[in-house]
Design goal:
cytoplasm; about 25% strand; Aminopeptidase; alpha+beta; GNAT_dom; 7 strands; biological rhythms; about 200 residues; 7-stranded mixed beta sheet
């Protein structure tokens, strides 16, 4: 069974009724809003959003195009995209990590036996920013992780100015991160992923 069919909250969310043709027959239309795991075919759209979001701020991207394809091939179930009428507007990409804290190697590795989900990047398309989409997507993503037996906690690293945003999403600061990128220093943050048995019994996971 695919991850999508096993996770009810990832099924398309239709926000308006399908239109009908003059003859009374339904036309096939794209869902107004849909959350789903990403695939390698989404990599270019992902990179375009990420590049615009990060290069203007830090001069580099958390993941380059080949790294995006790498993770979407290895662990697509640890990604989540928000699509509006078929267009990607926001996304999260993660991989598994097997140590207590992040290290430089966590930037490029996926550890299948790990129990920590390293969130590499969350980005929102510039045309829909300041609408709360980042917070909504993170909430959806954490619900998604609760249906994955491997996930016990989520880890991420962010610049200090983003700490309040992630605290509002339920993350707690662990202190300075060991990872550096150029001159940038990061704060490491953690969110426990709880309630696996409860979620499996009550959501079809």
């Amino acid at each position: 069974m695919s991850a999508l069919s096993a996770l009810p909250f990832l099924k398309p969310v239709h926000l308006r009724a399908p239109r009908s043709s003059p003859g009374g027959q339904r036309r096939h239309t794209l869902p107004a809003s849909e959350f789903r795991c990403l695939s390698p075919e989404d990599a270019v759209s992902v990179f375009e959003i990420e590049r615009e979001a990060f290069i203007s701020v830090s001069g580099d991207c958390p993941l380059h195009l080949d790294e995006i394809r790498h993770f979407l091939n290895l662990c697509p179930e640890l990604s989540l995209g928000w699509f509006e009428e078929g267009r990607l507007v926001a996304f999260i990409i993660g991989s598994l990590w097997d140590q207590e804290r992040l290290s430089q190697a966590a930037l490029t590795l996926h550890k299948p036996q790990g129990s920590a989900v390293h969130i590499h990047v969350l980005a929102v398309h510039r045309t829909v920013r300041q609408q709360g989409k980042g917070s909504i997507l993170m909430w959806r993503y954490l619900q998604h992780l609760r249906c994955l037996p491997c996930a016990r906690r989520a880890l991420l690293m962010c610049e200090p100015f983003l700490v309040p945003f992630y605290q509002k999403c339920g993350f707690q600061a662990l202190g300075p991160c060991q990872v550096t990128v150029g001159d940038l220093a990061f704060v490491e943050m953690q969110h426990p992923v709880r309630g696996h048995a409860f979620m499996r019994r009550n959501s079809g996971c």
